[in-house]
């Protein structure tokens, strides 16, 4: 492909069309465009896999969840609304939810195994007592998280379970850093209130 030189700016410009944005690609996916879906996958799959891997820490599971995310993107593309955010943030939010669901499922399986192990082990009173206290504390945190708004809970989970910085969270969610900090601060205040923690 030949390129033309702009003599005033001496910059090269290609005659190839500009690559479509994720928003435009997702709109075409919503109408059943398989080529647009392939392009959207190429553009976003690396970021989705990176986010999921940070949460799951397991490459095989992360790849599996990434495939599930893009299957859901294909099936749910008509539900994307540009007025509510970018295609990138929509897909990454979907990826975050899927990864959190996988973590929860894994934790539930681990908890079942632990419960069976404790039941089968002739544990002393102190061990049983400690296990009960830990379980109660986990339940309290879970109930308190459930009282947060979706945005607050998302910010708290990304920061404390995902280990994301404010700037990384802003990029993942497609919102300004100030918004991320506000959601996180409000979420932590409400979380402390719900758990009866006094500062």
Structure description:
By secondary structure, this protein is mainly alpha-helical. 73% of the residues lie in helices and 3% in strands. It contains 8 helices and 2 strands. It has a two-stranded antiparallel ribbon. Strand 1 and strand 2 form a beta hairpin. Helix 1 packs across helix 2. The termini are far apart. 21% of the residues are buried.
What does the average pLDDT come to?
79
The string of secondary-structure elements, in order, is EEHHHHHHHH
How far the N terminus sits from the C terminus, by CA atoms, comes to: 65 Å
Structural class assignment: mainly alpha
Strand content: under 5%
Low-confidence sequence ranges: 1-16
Continuous helix count = 8
Query: Can you tell me the overall shape?
Result: globular
Indicate the percent of residues in helices.
over 70%
Which strands sit side by side, in order, in the main sheet?
A: 1-2
| Main sheet: strands, sense, barrel | 2 strands, antiparallel
**Count the strands?**
2
Radius of gyration: 22 Å
């Amino acid at each position: 492909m030949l390129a033309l030189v702009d003599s005033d700016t001496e910059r090269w410009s290609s005659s190839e069309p500009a690559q479509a944005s994720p928003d435009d690609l997702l709109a075409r996916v919503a109408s059943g465009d398989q080529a647009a879906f392939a392009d959207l996958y190429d553009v976003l799959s690396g970021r989705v896999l990176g986010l999921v891997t940070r949460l799951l820490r397991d490459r095989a599971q992360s790849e599996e969840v990434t495939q599930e995310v893009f299957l859901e993107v294909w099936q749910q593309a008509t539900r994307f609304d540009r007025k509510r955010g970018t295609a990138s943030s929509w897909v990454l939010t979907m990826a975050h939810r899927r990864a959190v669901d996988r973590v929860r499922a894994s934790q539930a399986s681990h908890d079942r195994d632990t419960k069976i192990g404790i039941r089968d082990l002739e544990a002393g009173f102190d061990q049983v007592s400690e296990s009960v206290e830990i379980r109660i504390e986990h339940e309290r945190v879970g109930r308190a998280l459930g009282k947060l708004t979706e945005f607050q809970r998302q910010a708290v989970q990304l920061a404390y379970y995902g280990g994301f910085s404010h700037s990384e969270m802003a990029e993942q969610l497609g919102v300004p850093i100030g918004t991320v900090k506000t959601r996180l601060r409000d979420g932590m205040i409400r979380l402390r209130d719900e758990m009866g923690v006094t500062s």
